[in-house]
Design brief:
Structural class: alpha+beta
Order of helices and strands: HEHEHEEEEHHEEEHHHHEEE
Low-confidence stretches: none
Oligomer: single chain
Number of helices: 9
Radius of gyration: 27 Å
Mean pLDDT: 92
Largest sheet: 6 strands, antiparallel
Strand content: 5-15%
Distance between the termini: 5 Å
Shape: rod-shaped
């Protein structure tokens, strides 16, 4: 199974849709004299502006102002770089999570596998995201923004994970009538992960919860200084790309190699040649989501 499918241009479109401009909260001078002086401050070389960052992330407060356009290009590229790196960090962390994730406490009754909430376990994503090679070296405010994204994504992912169930899926058709006193370990029939229902799936399949979690996790000092709430646009962009990626992953990811086993009570005296597995379980070991 390939890593998460990240549609990064969608994040750029979401950020741009917030309509943020630079300079922040710009107001043109009022009064005839002030306006005249303002116009004279810009030479001809500053009145031709060609965007260098396509698609743009910020729009200049005034069209055809090279200084304002240059600010949009530079700062917009900084936001784009952070956005792309954090998405790659989540993809890295998710790949590490899959290697360690496993199903546990599954009960087998004949062909059916039954797992209650909590039957899927795996490491916490927050530390995996923070320590991803692409962003582990961030310092200062960049590190604070990284930590907010990591905490918000991890919280929503854990909500989904803790709610995952196995709702009587027909994983073991051979266990309907098995010849012998004990069914040996047999792999389950591969099924899409999305069939393992979780009431908290909306937390990773829709951007609203993830964006709010990132907003709440961000350092209060940074939020108070951000009058335009640029952090909200950034979190909205990241959450939108990730929610689409997680939705695609849930549908494409196969649950495989869940080794089921169990007793055949009907084989006890008086003997019946074949019978269903009753009260079986699985071998809980990582590897159920690596394919």
């Amino acid at each position: 199974m390939p890593p998460l499918t990240l549609i990064k241009p969608a994040g750029a479109a979401i950020f741009l849709a917030h309509g943020l401009k630079l300079p922040s909260q710009f107001k043109p001078p009022s009064g005839n004299t002030a306006q005249e002086h303002y116009k004279q401050a810009w030479g001809p070389e500053n009145k031709v502006a060609v965007p260098q960052l396509i698609p743009p992330w910020f729009m200049p407060a005034e069209q055809n102002n090279k200084c304002y356009q240059d600010s949009c290009d530079k700062i917009g590229n900084d936001f784009k770089t952070f956005h792309d790196k954090m998405l790659d960090a989540v993809m890295f962390a998710h790949s590490q999570w899959k290697l360690q994730a496993k199903f546990q406490n599954i009960q087998i009754m004949a062909v059916s596998a039954i797992g209650t909430p909590g039957c899927l376990s795996g490491p916490d994503l927050e530390s995996l995201i923070k320590n991803a090679p692409i962003c582990a070296s961030f310092t200062g405010n960049m590190a604070k923004h990284r930590d907010a994204v990591a905490k918000g994504v991890a919280q929503c992912f854990k909500k989904w994970q803790d709610g995952v169930t196995v709702p009587g899926l027909p994983w073991y058709p051979a266990f309907a009538a098995f010849p012998g006193p004990m069914a040996p370990p047999i792999p389950n029939v591969p099924t899409p992960l999305i069939t393992c229902l979780s009431p908290a799936a909306i937390s990773i399949c829709a951007p609203t919860d993830m964006k709010s979690a990132m907003d709440n996790a961000l350092d209060g000092g940074l939020k108070s200084k951000d009058n335009d709430k640029q952090y909200e646009a950034l979190h909205d962009a990241i959450a939108t790309v990730l929610s689409a990626a997680f939705t695609i992953w849930l549908a494409a990811q196969q649950v495989m190699l869940v080794m089921g086993k169990g007793p055949i009570p009907s084989f006890a005296p008086p003997y019946v040649p074949v019978g269903p597995v009753v009260g079986g379980d699985i071998i809980s070991a990582p590897g159920h989501l690596i394919s």
